[in-house]
Amino acid sequence: MSGDIGRRAVLQATGAGAALLAAPAFVRAAGKPVLKAGDQKGGLRALLECADELKNLPYEIQWAEFPAAAPLAEALNAEAVELGPIGDAPLIFALAQGVRIKAFAVNRSDAYGTAVLVKADSPIRTGADLKGKSVATNRGSIGHYVTLRTLAAAGLQPGDVQFRFLAPSDAKLALVGGSVDAWATWEPYTAVAETVDKLRVLSNGRGLWSGLSYIAATDTALRDKRELLVDFRARTERAQRWANAHIGDYADALARIIGIPAPAARLAFERRQTRYLPIDAALIAEQQKTADVYLDAGLLAKRLVVSETFVSV
Questions:
Q1: Strands 101-108 and 212-218: what pairing?
Q2: How would you classify the pairing of strands 32-40 and 28-29?
Q3: How many CB atoms sit inside 10 A of residue 277's CB?
Q4: Ramachandran class of 137: left when φ > 0, alpha when ψ lies in -120 to 50, beta otherwise
Q5: pTM to 2 decimal places
Q6: Roughly what angle, to the nearest 10 degrees, separates helices 142-153 and 281-296?
Q7: CB-based contact 106:279 (threshold 8 Å)
Q8: From the CB of residue 267, how many other CB atoms can be counted at a distance below 10 Å?
Q9: Which one, of 87, 106, 85, lies nearest residue 278 by Cα?
Q10: Distance between the two ends of the chain, CA-based, in angstroms?
Q11: Rounded to an integer, what distance in angstroms lies between the CA atom of residue 160 and that of residue 133?
């Protein structure tokens, strides 16, 4: 995964990307240090904004938005951003490809919203019905992971389906247009697909996926900006507690900020029930199981020892 690829990912993901990459002089803004934060579908920034946790910051945050974990990981690898939210499966995939990051904060959500979707009138009714069919998802994503687990639960192998690796918006178009048979994705894409596109959940992550997600930072940021990362993590955890206690207010603000219908935002948030957790031995063991599934599926060249990919700040 080259630095050039990461830089292209940032430029494609945000109109501010050119300024972010072309202006190394802006490592400080108005005398304050700068933290370059990646985000997926605006979720992390929206959370912090809604909970008023971006006020009175002792540092500046430069945000860059990405449609999925893969381009975010590329930007982290290029050090175009310094931190970002990433699910357990794509974190493993990124680390296996040599991305120099570590997880420093962890949360768990209800896994239902990570799902394999089909059209409402599709003849596909069970995981076994996916045999010989095509599934669109991001390579190495939590959607990819849940598809692998869905196949395994039905007694199928990864080679029993044809994967088409597409970004979420392209994957949805492919399913709606009939060029693929199923789409594996995550929130808030799942909630939008259910409420707006009337797609049907074929299988969901409950019992298949851990529900774990992380905030990861580059090794450089962990070395040079540890105090900022400690503060950022604390603000994020406080914001999550606020949002869980103000579901309606947060869902309405989330819909407005990230540009999705309010019913979809409420559905996505209500069922996620996200909670931040400590990094402990039990959590690391769960992450190791996820890595081993990828190894068994032939997506990793060698076993990844996940204990080396966590850090306390």
A1: antiparallel
A2: antiparallel
A3: 13
A4: beta
A5: 0.82
A6: 70
A7: yes
A8: 20
A9: 106
A10: 27
A11: 8
Beta strands 83-87 and 60-66, pairing class? unpaired
Q: Tell me: the pLDDT tens digits for 170-217?
A: 999 999 999 999 999 999 999 999 999 999 999 999 999 999 999 999
Residue 3 and residue 48 in contact, taking contact as beta carbons nearer than 8 Å: no
- Give the amino acid at 37: A
Query: What counts of helices (H) and strands (E) characterise the chain?
Result: 13, 12
- Please, are residues 264 and 188 in contact by the beta-carbon 8 Å criterion? yes
CA–CA dist 156, 182 (Å, integer): 16
Which two three-digit tokens encode residue 86?
A: 């990433």
Please say whether the beta carbons of 201 and 116 come within 8 A.
yes
Task: Say what the pLDDT of residue 28 is.
Answer: 55
Residue 274 near residue 107 (C-beta atoms within 8 A):
yes
pLDDT digits (tens, 9 = 90+) for 289-304: 999 998 998 889 999 9
Evaluate whether 273 touches 291 at the Cβ level (below 8 Å). Answer: no
Cα–Cα distance between 131 and 94 in angstroms, integer? 28
Contact criterion met (CB below 8 Å) for 76 and 13: no
Half-sphere exposure (CA, 13 Å, Cβ side) for 84?
36
Q: What is the number of other CB atoms lying within 10 angstroms of the CB of residue 292?
A: 15
